[in-house]
Design goal:
Layout lengths: L1 H5 L1 H20 L4 H9 L5 H10 L1 H4 L3 H12 L1 H26 L1 H4 L7 H10 L1 H10 L5 H10 L4 H11 L1 H16 L2 H29 L4
Pfam families: VTT_dom
Keywords: Cell membrane, Membrane, Transmembrane, Transmembrane helix
Protein name: TVP38/TMEM64 family membrane protein
């Protein structure tokens, strides 16, 4: 019974992802061509606008997953993966700078689970812990950026760790978006399979990461 419970969360996440995709495509009637035409309408400014929208994610609370898929649809795996990585790194930098400027007085990071414990860890070895937590996320993307900023992790190592840690997920998004853009059902199936594998790996390693970090439930 316990083994079945361990698979409930990944299954729910996958179902929610598919539900959102269904609503966007069939209920809101937002197809790949509409997304592609909208972004390409900006011409040579498209990549820059994409980067700015992505980087402002922590401020405007825009779903960056939508941006990542859009980049794959419009630009393909390459240079889509580059644009996503740059945008996501920009979003990480935005959250970090917000935390350094405003501090905990506004962001209130202490109310999030494990924030205090992770705060202590990133103060010790910022690059290592940020890298691991980007690869195996056990907390929100922006929350880690806030904590790193408040803990005064050095900006360079924080950005590099974020960039490297986001690579696997970035490729998955770019490949899925590209597959949707091409309309190739076999590639879409492979892309979804990659997503599922990454989700399972993340879920299976979560407990090890939490134990390594000394996090309590």
């Amino acid at each position: 019974m316990k083994q079945w419970k361990n698979w409930i969360k990944p299954a729910i996440v996958l179902l929610l992802f598919l539900l959102v995709a269904y609503i966007v495509r069939f209920e809101l009637n937002i197809g790949k061509d509409a997304i592609k035409d909208f972004i390409l309408s900006f011409g040579v400014w498209g990549p820059l606008i994409f980067f700015l929208l992505y980087a402002l994610g922590p401020i405007v609370f825009f779903p960056t997953s939508v941006m990542s898929l859009a980049a794959g649809i419009v630009y393909g795996v390459f240079p889509g993966v580059i644009y996503i990585l740059l945008g996501a790194t920009g979003a990480a930098a935005t959250g970090y700078v917000m935390a350094r400027y405003f501090g905990d007085s506004i962001l209130k990071f202490h109310k999030f689970k494990w924030s205090d414990q992770i705060y202590e860890k990133v103060q010790e070895r910022g690059f290592l812990y940020v890298l691991v937590l980007r690869l195996i996320p056990i907390m929100g993307f922006d929350i880690l950026s806030y904590i790193s900023g408040i803990a005064r992790v050095k900006f360079g190592p924080f950005i590099l760790a974020s960039f490297l840690g986001m690579m696997p997920g970035t490729f998955a998004y770019a490949f899925l978006g590209s597959s949707i853009g091409e309309g190739d059902s076999s590639k879409i199936a492979i892309a979804i399979g990659i997503f599922v594998i990454l989700m399972l790996i993340t879920y299976l390693l979560r407990n090890r990461v939490k134990k390594w970090l000394g996090l309590s439930e």
